[in-house]
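Exercise: predict the fold of this chain.
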Amino acid sequence: MAESSEGEQEGKLTGGSPKLVVDEQLREMGKKAAWSVSSSKPGSGVSSLRDDNLETYWQSDGAQPHLVNIQFQRKARLQLVAIYVDFKLDESYTPSKMSIRAGDGFHNLKEIKVVELDKPTGWVYISLSGTDPRETFVNTFMLQIAVLSNHLNGRDTHVRQIKVYGPRQNPIPLQPFQFTSTEFITYSMLR
């Protein structure tokens, strides 16, 4: 991986996984968010990103960058973004360079990752972890995925699915039950 000019990580991702495989310690957080896009063609809007159907897609309609905005009511701990793109079907509509930004809202988004995609077909995984091993997730109200350029200098973009994952909330590791009160957590282990 190379460093970009502003200090964010920049990486080139190739290939893609035909099947979505995610660590069981992660949970999908997209259901807790409000999703919006900068533009879309009729019938290919934001709902196509979340319908779990790889045949449908969001198609942008307008000038680049094309944006997907994911806003949470409460601060969310996010660790992984999984994006399904298909160069074989979409060709010049396939993203080639994407930026992941995080912040409290539109006014203070900060770029945390820049990724280049090389003819991907399948699920592409983008870790939101920082360079410091203690930074395993991003704590944010808003995540923005920006498509900066497409393959073959395409203008509009196709993205078939986007999933956002965060760590599962379990205060006690390897504990089969999830206690919610402080008193139960205090007496949950033998000393």
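Check your answer against the key: Confidence is low (pLDDT under 50) at residues 1-9.
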